[in-house]
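cron nightly-structures :: item 1 of 1
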Amino acid sequence: MIFGFNFTFLSKYGFYYLEGLKVTLQLAFWTLILATIVGVIMGMIRVQNFKIVSSVIDGWINFIRGVPVMVQIFIVYYGIATSLPQFWAAVVSLTVNSSVYIAEHTRAGMQAVNKGQMEAARCIGMSAFQANWYIIIPQAIKNILPSLCNEFILLIKNTSIVSVIALHELTYTSNSVRANTFLAFEPLIVTAFIYFIITYIIKKLISVLERRLHAHD
């Protein structure tokens, strides 16, 4: 008993939480990689003079931002990616959602870089892609790092929503423990604490990265 709460169930169901945490971290890892790649590419395209393509991407971003994440998960799982396993359907759903926010952060960060940087890069023979990749993007990342940190933390928390398609991640595991132990509150406290630890570690790692980038400057 801790503060009047009964956590003795962890001796029997602690392994369940470890398995759920494993799935959650794998889900976040693959989503983070794919969403970052897709989001950065979309952000780079939006700052170019490709009006038709930029307009299509802008419409896509506005649509995804206006639809709840749970609805997106249902659309992907039951309509678009029905042949995919639950795990990869969840990855696709979260990638679609997270990538549009990363795209907006990337666009804002790139536009905040002095335009003279691009002009100088083009003058020495770089293509637009090379200038963006080697000159603009590294500077933009420094500008948007706090926003990306918040997006990564939000991504970790959004993994809990895929429990609606019965993927055995942390939140689904917590609900299973509640059903088996008939404890309504304590399993949720454990789940909340695990999510807090994960997001806190990410925040600290980003803080270390920020300090190193500033020191390099």
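cron nightly-structures :: done
The chain has a mean pLDDT of 85.
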